[in-house]
Amino acid sequence: MNTPGDPSSSSTPQHSLLPNVQPTLEQNNRVSVWHLPSDISQSRLGGRTSPSNACTLIALQLIELIERRNLHFATTHTPLSLPPRVLRAHAGAESQPTTTTCIRYVIGTFVEAIIDGNEAHAHAAKTRKPEEQNFTIPDAIKAMMRPLTEIDFCMVTGPFAVQVPHFIRIALRSPSLLPLDRIHFVLIAFERTVLLVADRRTNSLIVLDSHLHGVTCAVTTGAVVAAAHLSDLSTLFHWMGDYIFPESRSPNFVQEFEISTVTYAGTSRDCVEESRGGFSSFTRPPPVPPVPPVLLMRPMPIFISSWCDKENEPPGSSHEQSMQQPLKKTIKRSADSSDLAPLGSSNNKRVRSGSDATTTVADHSD
């Protein structure tokens, strides 16, 4: 049995097993991308041979792990137009400079989230019909049984690389979210879910996609981590449209997306005691007791047009047009809280994600 001081109980040997992945600079050197090996993806990790529909649960598990471990991200490229500065905490000048996280820890956290998400999906899927293996975000939160709260969501239609970053900017300007160091966006597009993390301390947006990529291409890669400065938001989403969601470039696919803001509502003690680097398998936790949260964030409107400056509105459309239905739908939750009824919409269901959908553009799913 390992003792706390025993080197064999340290997380270092576990992290030494992780690949040493070097970033590539893409989109005119504005986006840093870490392409992980194909065996680090939701459908192949741990020798798995069957497809995985757990991407939504994996994204939610990532939110908890990132907050528990207080991970901060930085890009490998800083825009030349920005003056160099020391990254300081928001609370005051006496705070310590922000310490960014080594990519090995990020990859290790990603691996844990994939393991836990796949296990949680397998457990929850036992009680669901075969045609209900894909989860809405409310369903996934229930299945994870973790202290996570969905603050708000919106349904977006239109060009992916134009409309989605527009609504991300709206949320970033929301006064309700200003206290948060990190804002987590769960994005569902073309039946696949990815996690976006806006890190205010490092002014970066991180993309974490757990799917297998390039199945029909000569080179197959696994999960992907990408990062860009917030000033390069549009560039990052153009990259995502090319690499992660190639369907967005095709007129044959309906351009509809769901963006949700989800926050971790655990305790300060949770975050202090969580170590970095364990690879324990998922254990179904007991229901979370009512405990004082780190920062209580209740469901509230976030995607409100007044937060967004006109200078950042989608090109070719007025600010008012960008907020017309069905881009942002005022919603009312149904009694069972699993579905919703967008006002003025014939589609009364939340978007489900997780299927191993294939596309005629390229197979970027598992």
Automatic annotation (TrEMBL):
Lineage top rank: taxon: Eukaryota
Region (Disordered): 1-20, 308-366
Biased composition annotated in UniProt, kind: Polar residues: 318-327, 355-366
Protein name: Uncharacterized protein
Protein source organism: Pristionchus entomophagus
